[in-house]
């Protein structure tokens, strides 16, 4: 090869890279969630296919009958057809994921439908009594089963429920949270024993709790039936629920938070009070709500320990007292339409009362850890500004000056200070 040919070969132009049509298009993120056209069409096609297959099976091929069997068969056929249609485009893992998503959505829909049905049916049956003002302000002392709804009410049951649940909460919340903190912070054999007892008490029948309080408080100690005795029985039912739920919530607090607090020199009680409990405050509020929902709906302990009355009683230490669940039980067992309407109205009031208590607990509990509302954010900002001012004052030059007469005065003179030190008396001189 000559020198000229070698030079021409070295200076030959390099071919440009091939540019495809999609090179100039912007990158688009791949969609990994949400409904797609093919997914919606697969759901609709599977639902129609499952329904038609069930109609053919029940009407022509087999002698099946019954609405429940038809519904179950149609749903199973729908799942099978949907799995087949999804398998035409996706792999096995995606098919299982799609089918389980449909099953979970179905379960959630059934639960929500049941909740709406219960609330709607109770409110619809109780709408005859709810519009009347006397239903909330009067008791049943001067009203009988044959009286119209315009006479009598549930004021005695509402007040009794509020008094009983307030006393039960004042007993349950401190004891339950203290026991949960003990189980979480002090592990050992005794804590395992206490946790086992608490788990066993969660399945305790309510009638047993009522009998225990009736035997000890009324028979042995000779106390009368009262709202206080009913509150004790309700506390026995609420306590294991609160302890168990609070223990689970406290276990979710990261251990690094307590380790950091103890590394800074904080004692155990201060760590629990300022770190553990504020972090789990939202979950602890949920634990209290669960215990309240369990105790506010009890009937048999109240009947055993507080008795029954149709009059308003504001003293929880003496005299019989009635709660809303017990009033509902006595109202609906009557054959009179007015009494049944009062029973469903009392049940609607009970659900509203539980909703109000739930809202109050959520407001007190606040949001989860790391999430602050506006009021908490402003309070945190004010605390941060106070800390900044305090640190600035600690590092100010004026704080380096001490009184010369102080026994803790520094031996070295601060730099830049205009205060002259007293050399003191010379040898041989007197003050």
TrEMBL record:
Residues 372-383 have a biased composition (Basic residues). The keyword Ribosomal protein does not apply. Its main location: membrane. The chain crosses the membrane at residues 38-58, 64-88, 100-124, 154-184, 196-220, 226-243, 343-365. The keyword Transmembrane applies. It is found in: Cell membrane. It comes from the Bacteria. Keywords: Cell membrane, Membrane, Phosphate transport, Transmembrane, Transmembrane helix, Transport. Residues 368-387, 402-431 are annotated as: Disordered. It is a multi-pass membrane protein. Residues 158-361 form the ABC transmembrane type-1 domain. PROSITE patterns: ABC_TM1. InterPro entries: MetI-like, MetI-like_sf, Phosphate_PstA, Phosphate_transprt_permease. Belongs to the binding-protein-dependent transport system permease family. CysTW subfamily. Part of the binding-protein-dependent transport system for phosphate; probably responsible for the translocation of the substrate across the membrane. This is Phosphate transport system permease protein PstA. It comes from Streptomyces yaanensis.
């Amino acid at each position: 090869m000559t020198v000229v040919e070698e030079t021409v070969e070295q200076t030959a132009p390099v071919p440009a890279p091939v540019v495809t049509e999609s090179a100039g298009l912007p990158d688009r993120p791949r969609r990994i969630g949400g409904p797609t056209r093919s997914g919606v069409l697969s759901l609709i096609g599977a639902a129609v296919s499952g329904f038609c297959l069930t109609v053919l099976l029940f009407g022509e091929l087999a002698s099946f009958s019954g609405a429940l069997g038809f519904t179950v068969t149609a749903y199973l056929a729908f799942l099978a057809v949907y799995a087949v249609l999804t398998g035409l485009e996706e792999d096995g893992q995606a098919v299982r994921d799609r089918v389980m998503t449909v099953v979970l959505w179905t379960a959630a829909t059934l639960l929500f439908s049941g909740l709406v049905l219960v609330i709607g049916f109770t409110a619809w049956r109780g709408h005859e009594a709810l519009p009347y003002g006397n239903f909330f302000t009067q008791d049943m002392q001067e009203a009988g089963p044959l009286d119209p709804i315009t006479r009598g009410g549930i004021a005695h049951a509402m007040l009794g429920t509020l008094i009983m649940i307030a006393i039960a909460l004042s007993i349950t919340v401190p004891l339950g949270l203290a026991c949960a903190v003990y189980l979480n912070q002090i592990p050992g054999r005794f804590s395992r024993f206490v946790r086992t007892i608490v788990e066993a008490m969660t399945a305790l029948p309510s009638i047993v709790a009522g009998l225990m309080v009736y035997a000890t408080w009324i028979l042995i100690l000779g106390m009368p039936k009262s709202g206080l005795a009913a509150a004790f029985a309700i506390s026995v039912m609420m306590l294991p629920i609160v302890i168990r739920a609070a223990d689970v919530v406290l276990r979710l607090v990261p251990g690094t938070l307590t380790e950091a607090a103890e590394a800074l020199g904080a004692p155990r009680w201060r760590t629990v009070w300022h770190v553990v409990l504020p972090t789990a405050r939202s979950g602890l509020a949920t634990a209290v709500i669960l215990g309240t929902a369990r105790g506010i709906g009890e009937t048999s302990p109240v009947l055993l320990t507080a008795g029954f009355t149709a009059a308003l009683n504001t003293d929880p230490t003496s005299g019989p007292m009635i709660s809303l669940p017990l009033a509902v039980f006595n109202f609906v067992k009557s054959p009179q339409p007015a009494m049944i309407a009062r029973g469903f109205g009392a049940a609607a009031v009970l659900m509203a009362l539980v909703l109000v208590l739930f809202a109050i607990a959520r407001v007190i509990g606040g949001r989860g850890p790391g999430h602050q509302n506006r009021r908490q954010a402003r309070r945190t900002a004010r605390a941060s500004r106070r800390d900044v001012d305090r640190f600035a004052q600690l590092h100010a030059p004026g704080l380096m000056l001490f009184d010369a007469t102080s026994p803790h005065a520094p031996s070295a003179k601060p730099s830049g200070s205009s205060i002259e030190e007293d050399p003191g008396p010379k040898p041989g001189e007197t003050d």
